Amino acid sequence: MKVLVTGGGGFVGSHVVDLLADAAHDVVVLDSLAPDVHPRRPTYLRPDVRYVEADVADPDAWTDAAAGVDAVCHQAARVGLGVDLGDIRRYVADNDAGTAAGLWALHRMGFRGRLVLASSMVVYGEGSYRCAEHGIVRPGPRRPADLGAGRYEPPCPVCGAALAGAPVAEDAPTDPRNVYAATKLHQEHLCAAFGRDQGVPVTALRYHNVYGARMPRDTPYAGVASIFRSALAQGKAPTVLEDGGQRRDFVAVGDVARANVLALTAAEPVDGALNVASGAPHTVLDLATALATAAGPAAPAPRVVGGARVGDVRHIVASPARAAATLGFTAEIGFAAGIAAFATAELR
């Protein structure tokens, strides 16, 4: 099978490329390898893969890279929570316009293969919660006054009572809370519209908190695992916001890459969204503590500092049931082993 992987020089995309090429698939990568993302050319780029170094927003580059492909794995995106609203144009240009350019080119080419999109759990906003009186509820954005006072848990939007967390399934309402989240949901909508129009199966893989080798280091846009690891590498304590009790599903990049390959190669394509998660949530403080422990006895302990990032949510954990039922995907890398390996893995 011939597969185009956009963003195949990046964190998740490069691992997808490795699995596909190792399985003897013909792989083409479309990636700008932009200097703000790759200050140095990555050493893990493969000699047996064709790299089209161009902007994903260029439809001519898509036309070149996608010639004769059987499937497209669209990983290219500007990722991470933006520092402020000043990032809005870059996110929309890379994520929305880049996806539109590709779909326009694929339409012109008459593409009828599979399309797998890297989406994100951020499209859900807050996770799923249960009120003892009102059942499953959807809290609104947390108020700055509550965050400033250390009231981090969202209350029931009906009665104000305390809530219990529940896993989010793919049919949960979407509620993006920041610019990045809005662009990821728009990518899903654009690809779904393309799929309906062209008769193309589109699988949107909603990644939860991915960690592993080749993550970007020392950048405010990196995932929390990379931020904590970069701090420890500098001899600094990981700084944990809020009270550290935020629950997330941390999933190893090797498992995420394998989910992509399953979506590309399964006997029957899966149309729609799938959570890609470990199914075993941990708190952000759990993550910081595990990384500090793996760094050795001289590593400083995490420091819980309160505060919160604008647009962040309290808890978001996933139900991995649909991915298991439709793709046969279940995560294989446990939290303890995965974080121990990540503590010494090469970052980008």
Features:
seven-stranded parallel β-sheet; 348 residues; alpha/beta; 33% helix; globular; three-stranded antiparallel β-sheet
Detailed description of the structure:
- The protein is of the alpha/beta class and 348 residues long.
- The chain is built from 10 helices and 16 strands.
- 33% of the residues lie in helices and 18% in strands.
- The strands form 5 sheets. Strands 3-2-1-4-5-9-14 form a 7-stranded parallel beta sheet, sandwiched between helices. It has a 3-stranded antiparallel beta sheet with strand order 7-6-8, with no helix packed on it. Strands 10-13 form a two-stranded parallel sheet.
- Helix 1 links the parallel strand 1 and strand 2 (26-30).
- The two termini are 29 Å apart.
Concise overview:
This protein is an alpha/beta fold.
Shape: globular
Low-confidence stretches: none
Treating each run of at least 4 consecutive H or I residues as one helix, how many helices? 10
Percent in strands = 15-25%
Main beta sheet strand tally, sense and closure: 7 strands, parallel
What is the distance, rounded to the nearest whole angstrom, between the alpha carbons of the first and last residues?
A: 29 Å
Q: What is the element layout, followed by pairings?
A:
Layout: E1 2-6, H1 11-22, E2 26-30, E3 50-52, H2 59-65, E4 71-74, H3 88-109, E5 114-120, E6 128-131, E7 135-137, H4 144-148, E8 164-166, H5 179-198, E9 202-207, E10 209-211, H6 224-233, E11 239-241, E12 247-248, E13 250-252, H7 253-265, E14 272-276, E15 282-283, H8 284-294, E16 303-306, H9 321-327, H10 335-342
Parallel strand pairs: 1-2, 1-4, 2-3, 4-5, 5-9, 9-14, 10-13, 11-16
Antiparallel strand pairs: 6-7, 6-8, 12-15
Helix pairs in contact: 1-7, 2-3, 3-5, 6-8, 8-10
